[in-house]
Amino acid sequence: MPDILKRTTLGMLLLLVMPVLVVLSGWQWQPHEMGWGSIILFWFTETVTRPWGVLTSTILCVWFLWCLRFRLKPAIFLLAILVATVLAGQYTKSLIKNQVREPRPYVLWLEKSVGVSNEYFYELKRKQRGLLVEESVASNEQLPDWLKRHWAFETGFSFPSGHTMFAATWALLGVGLLWPRRRYVTITLLLLWASLVMGSRLMLGMHWPQDLIVSTLISWLFITLATWFTQRFCGPLSVLPEEQQEINERENESRQL
After folding, report:
1. Tell me: the pLDDT tens digits for 160-195?
2. 145-153 and 126-137 are packed helices; what angle lies between their axes, rounded to 10 degrees?
3. Which of 67, 214, 223, 254 has the fewest CB atoms within 10 Å, i.e. the most exposed one?
4. What residues are annotated to the active site?
């Protein structure tokens, strides 16, 4: 357990660097001219947004199963742990959102710019909120159509961030489960992807920095437990003798590059 805690905590701290720096800088979201950089960030957000998040989870589940290569019964148990961990995070997110009821940044901007109070906004049903967003920003030429549609689709509360929890969960699962197998490239890519998803939530006016921070901490808790369960019930996470040659070959190729 101490080794698991060390590596998941390290992964958590790496993910927290960006939102903590944003808090310390005093940065505040405002709608601005959105170029290619914003579009790219939107694409990263879409990898988590329904229905694409299901595809992302499917691909990552298959990849984790391949990297760990457990026998059939432990592999099925591992798959159950992966799915349960992601779902537990999303359920926890929804529970907290409905209790805290924090408005999204873009909702407060609508309140200031077009006079739609956030109290009235969140009293409406979800479909009505989407229609209200579409009507409120229809004539705003500064905002791109794809962002208007995203706002109209994502009308829930802000705290915590479900997108962050989803991405951080997978990234920290990579740190917790794949670090002993020396899948450093996969871990790096997952951490980078999660950080970009988190950054996209800030830039698109969907979340506050504290939403990202708390979501990452919740994910860290779930992943630490999930990694321990995997090691306890599926088998050792350390490198098996038959895999050592493949790892050595992969590392030699990396050095040559």
Report:
1. 999 999 999 999 999 999 998 889 999 999 999 999
2. 160
3. 254
4. 163, 207
